[in-house]
Write a sequence for this structure.
């Protein structure tokens, strides 16, 4: 059996004897701890990148307890940080996160998962066909981005299979920037948007995210799958989030496993309308207390629909999301 503590464990040295001194809450200062960034997590092992490019494998130090450490976290490492084969560092501290992207499996799921931290742009990758685009999932992801204080970017893939125009008609009125990418091309529009930023890529399985990542970061070797002809779904070929530096040090991307749902249990139903700015402008004339839902009487959204100032698809997307959130909050 391996010992529970070793010489590097911050709690193990100068451990007071119980009878002579009361237990202190003071933690070691970690002055010598080495700053690093978590690039991927696999079964309790954290791959961390030091500022000088050294890749170090680490585990959590005991004082962190059950605190989650996620991809994107800026951490302080102690113990062996050489990165030499077979060595293991310890994550002693996690720096305060500037942003966190969370999602729950469903809107009423109390278990929230932090997917990634410290990113400033959320790239919603959606295929124009194979699998069919799912505007409601896209809308949810955009809401999640705004809620997390990140800038959304819509990235539409597989333009050789369907005309982007159909989907762009929905999203053009929003202020959400978009790019269209095709596998095997330069990806220059996307690169421009990613330059100098830290971006997380999310999207339903099979939309071509791994293909994009491989195009952006040569050598990333993200495995690509084939879309199942029957279900239209990818095979979930990517299993864990991973953070990669763009060539030339021009920013970072985080590739996440394909997702099927994007629960928003943490977003207040009342605030939802703020995340649909193209619809929000039509609610000025609504009476106080108007919830803008399906059954709201004399709602500005219905007037806008009647006047042709918005589309049924957009209003429906908002109202479905609202109904789902209200149901969850009423539980
Ligand atoms: N026609 C066409 N096919 C593409 C394009 N980009 C990717 N594909 C194909 O779409 C399939 C799925 O691509 P992946 O990159 O594996 O998709 P993913 O989103 O990473 O899927 P997961 O790994 O399951 O999350 C592959 O067969 C790709 O070759 C494109 O621009 N056009």
């Amino acid at each position: 059996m391996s010992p529970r503590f070793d010489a590097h464990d911050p709690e193990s040295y100068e451990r007071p004897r119980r009878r002579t001194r009361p237990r202190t809450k003071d933690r070691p200062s970690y002055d010598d701890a080495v700053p690093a960034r978590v690039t991927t997590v696999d079964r309790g092992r954290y791959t961390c990148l030091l500022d000088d490019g050294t890749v170090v494998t680490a585990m959590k130090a005991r004082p962190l307890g059950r605190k989650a450490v996620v991809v994107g976290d800026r951490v302080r490492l102690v113990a062996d940080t050489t990165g030499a084969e077979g060595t293991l560092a310890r994550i002693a501290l996690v720096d305060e996160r500037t942003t966190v992207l969370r999602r729950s499996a469903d809107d009423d799921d109390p278990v929230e998962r932090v997917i990634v931290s410290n990113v400033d742009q959320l790239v919603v990758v959606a295929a124009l066909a194979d699998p069919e685009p799912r505007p409601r999932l896209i809308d949810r992801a955009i809401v999640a981005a705004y809620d997390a204080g990140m800038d959304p970017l819509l990235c539409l893939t597989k333009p050789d299979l369907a005309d982007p125009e159909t989907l762009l008609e929905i999203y053009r009125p929003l202020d959400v920037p978009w790019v269209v990418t095709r596998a095997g091309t330069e990806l220059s529009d996307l690169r421009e948007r990613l330059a100098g930023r830290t971006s997380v890529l999310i999207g339903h399985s099979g939309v071509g995210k791994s293909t994009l990542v491989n195009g952006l970061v040569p050598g990333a070797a993200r495995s690509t799958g084939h879309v199942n002809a029957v279900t239209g779904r990818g095979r979930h070929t990517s299993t864990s989030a991973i953070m990669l530096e763009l060539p030339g040090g021009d920013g970072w991307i985080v590739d996440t496993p394909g997702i099927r749902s994007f629960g928003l249990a943490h977003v207040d139903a009342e605030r939802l309308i703020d995340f649909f700015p193209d619809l929000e402008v039509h609610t000025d004339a609504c009476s106080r207390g108007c919830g803008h839902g399906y059954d709201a009487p004399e709602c500005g959204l219905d007037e806008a629909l009647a006047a042709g100032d918005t589309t049924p698809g957009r209003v429906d997307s908002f109202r479905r999301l609202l109904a789902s959130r209200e149901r969850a909050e009423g539980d």
